[in-house]
Write a structure and sequence with these properties.
Length: 305
């Protein structure tokens, strides 16, 4: 292939990938900003609150990374079906992915229920344990909503439509910031809940994002031909197993990559509230920087599909 031929093709691919990537990057940045806002509110409330949210967030990510990584395979599968003109198969695939997402969300809920009593055995400083436990017990209720949201998000991204990722990401931020501040600090007649209030606000945000995405998919004409919600379809275990077989290795890989940050937070939590709080402030900067290549990588996956 000549240089004259390859240069326009390269420019075309860069432009197409950039259009896909920009909303994804901004959507991921909004996710990072959600953690940032959580930390600002927690730090404003008390150092111990910030430390509790740090440990709670680390343990929240532990069961969250596997579902996110497992379900992300839906993006590639949908993109391939879309590119091959086999869009009739996308609706049935999506409905089975919803069952998988619901199951993963329930596992996430169970994990966040079982782990908090074990925090003292991890060596977490005693002044952090009550707040971290309260945060996890509150945020666990958003687990099923979170996995369902990512399932719907990955479907949309697989169809080369990434704008909802950005809009719902920043929409969640607009919900979390005022609600988290009010509940954590006991404003507008609410009791002062500290870290627990931030957990409640996060769970509410997760459900609102999931409901908003489901409403969009239900009513939008863009995906009407896919018949995503045309009828109820029970779980088909072979289809779910195929999704797991493709996605679970990705989920485990994502867990291994993110596990370092989780383990680091838990180790620093053994030192005390001040150290855990300082660590969380520093890690937020690294997290925001990581969101940019992550968004570009997802856009590349869609284009390859």
């Amino acid at each position: 292939m000549s240089t004259a031929t390859s240069t326009p093709r390269f420019s075309k691919e860069v432009g197409a990938t950039g259009l896909l990537a920009l909303p994804l990057v901004l959507g991921h940045v909004s996710t990072g900003l959600i953690s940032f806002v959580d930390n600002v509110i927690a730090g404003h409330h008390a150092t111990a609150t910030l430390a509790a949210v740090t440990i709670g967030t680390a343990l929240l990510w532990l069961p969250m990374l596997i579902p996110i990584g497992t379900l992300i395979s839906l993006t590639a599968s949908v993109s391939q079906l879309h590119g091959a003109g086999r869009e009739r198969e996308i609706g049935p695939l999506f409905r089975q992915a919803l069952w998988l997402a619901l199951g993963l969300g329930l596992i996430m809920f169970t994990f966040l229920t079982v782990v908090p009593p074990l925090l003292p055995s991890f060596g977490i400083a005693p002044d952090i344990v009550p707040g971290a436990t309260a945060f996890l017990h509150a945020v666990r209720w958003g687990g099923p909503a979170l996995t369902l949201y990512f399932c719907m998000r990955y479907l949309s991204e697989g169809m080369h439509w990434t704008l909802p990722t950005m809009l719902l990401g920043f929409g969640g931020l607009l919900v979390l910031a005022p609600m988290g501040y009010v509940l954590a600090n006991g404003k507008l007649g609410f009791p002062e809940m500290g870290a627990e209030g931030l957990g409640v606000a996060s769970a509410v945000m997760m459900w609102l994002q999931a409901i908003a995405f489901a409403t969009y998919l239900w009513f939008t004409r863009r995906f009407a031909h896919l018949q995503l919600f045309s009828h109820f379809e029970g779980p088909r275990w072979k289809a779910i197993w195929d999704l797991l077989r493709t996605g679970l290795p990705i989920g485990i890989t994502v867990l291994m990559e993110g596990g370092l940050f989780i383990v680091t937070a838990l180790l620093i939590g053994r030192l005390g509230a001040n150290e855990a709080a300082a660590h969380q402030i520093a890690i937020n900067v690294a997290q925001l920087c990581f969101m940019i290549p992550m968004g570009v990588a997802e856009a590349t996956t869609v284009r390859v599909g």
